[in-house]
Automatic annotation (TrEMBL):
Residues 1-58 form the Lsr2 dimerization domain. The lineage of its organism: Bacteria, Bacillati, Actinomycetota, Actinomycetes, Pseudonocardiales. This is Nucleoid-associated protein Lsr2. Residues 76-112 form the Lsr2 DNA-binding domain. The keyword DNA-binding applies. Residues 123-138 have a biased composition (Basic residues). The keyword DNA-binding applies.
Length: 138
């Protein structure tokens, strides 16, 4: 026997079908509320002046699930991090093979890239030809 289970997300305020689950925190307690598009916008509008006057204490911006992929690290991000790690190791910074890069290392890398881009292209130095040395005793 086949069964089909349908889960419907309902808004926590009025019971209509919800489009978003919005996480928020107040007084050290984290909450989630399921809201329609209109009520999610209204919540953000109500909190906007408090957010503007407040200061962020950490954490990452959370993407609200809307049925789309929420992958935040792309291939180009990984490639850039590998370039930064290689540069940092070559320039005396201690960085681990994995994990988050410090803002100090990222800033130094970016500044080095800017400096490198601003330097005029230098002509390669020509080296003097090597002299052949006669083998002793022959």
């Amino acid at each position: 026997m086949a069964q089909k289970v349908l889960v419907e997300m309902l808004e926590d305020i009025d019971g209509t079908p919800a489009a978003h689950t919005i996480p928020f925190a107040l007084d050290g307690v984290t909450y989630e509320i399921d809201l329609t598009d209109d009520n999610a916008a209204a919540l953000r509008d109500e909190l906007a002046r408090y957010i503007a006057a407040g200061r962020r204490t950490g954490g990452r911006k959370v993407r609200v699930a809307t049925g789309q992929s929420t992958a935040t690290t792309t291939v180009s991000d990984r490639e850039r991090n590998q370039q930064i790690r290689a540069w940092a190791n070559a320039n005396g910074y201690e960085v681990s093979e994995r994990g988050r890069l410090s803002s100090e290392v990222i800033t130094a890398y970016e500044q080095a890239q800017i400096t490198q881009a601003e330097e005029p292209a230098k002509a390669p130095r020509k080296r003097a030809p090597r002299k052949k040395v006669a083998a002793a005793g022959k």
